[in-house]
Backbone:
């Protein structure tokens, strides 16, 4: 099943970063809904570094882990070198257990460089894995996921000010409308500002924090 889902929904990505895609199944929509919560506690553990993207995957810092999002001001003659850095393996020495410290200090901000150098690569023969920060074993559990959802995710959203009127009555009206389920889904996406559109030859999805339907 994992192979089927990968070929259908995230052949060039991973479950934590994959878009919803077109005509998703009910099961995939349900899995996709958990992305925000899972990102609060999932961390990439460096093995050989070949499958972890420096700029996209969460692998540095405290809870929750972050991707490296910026670089120093790089001299023009070295920008091509930086543009060629993609996976964490590019920052690891030939032995597989030591970082390229000079390169990291040269291109990354001081704080990010410090966090990277605190990590220990697993070596050439080890694979990159994911771990869950909110359990002692590193394995995800429903109990720990529920705690993250209530103590971190929901509280963060609760602190955000609301600058627009409540749309819950409209969502309830959509749910009560006697139309096929695909029309319900389309109307919900319209109201939640989650319709995929095309701009500058790229598919861009605009998403906002939609009100809960519960």
Residues:
């Amino acid at each position: 099943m994992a192979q089927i889902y990968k070929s259908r929904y995230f052949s060039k990505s991973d479950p934590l970063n994959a878009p919803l895609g077109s005509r998703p199944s009910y099961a995939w929509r349900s899995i996709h809904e958990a992305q925000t919560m899972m990102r609060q506690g999932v961390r990439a553990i460096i093995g050989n570094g070949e499958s972890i993207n420096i700029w996209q995957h969460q692998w540095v810092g405290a809870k929750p882990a972050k991707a490296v999002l910026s670089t120093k001001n790089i001299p023009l003659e070295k920008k091509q070198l930086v543009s060629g850095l993609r996976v964490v393996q590019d920052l690891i020495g030939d032995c597989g257990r030591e970082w390229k410290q000079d390169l990291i200090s040269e291109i990354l901000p001081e704080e990010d460089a410090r966090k990277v150098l605190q990590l220990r690569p697993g070596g050439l023969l080890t694979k990159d894995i994911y771990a869950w920060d909110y359990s002692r074993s590193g394995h995800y559990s429903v109990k720990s996921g529920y705690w993250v959802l209530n103590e971190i995710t929901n509280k963060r959203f609760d602190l955000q000010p609301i600058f627009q009127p409540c749309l819950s009555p409209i969502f309830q009206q959509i749910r009560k409308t006697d139309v096929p389920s695909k029309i319900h889904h389309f109307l919900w996406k319209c109201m939640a500002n989650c319709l995929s559109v095309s701009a500058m030859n790229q598919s861009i999805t605009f998403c906002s924090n939609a009100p809960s339907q519960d």
User: Anything to note?
Assistant: Residues 200-214 have pLDDT under 50 and may be disordered. The longest helix spans residues 142-158.
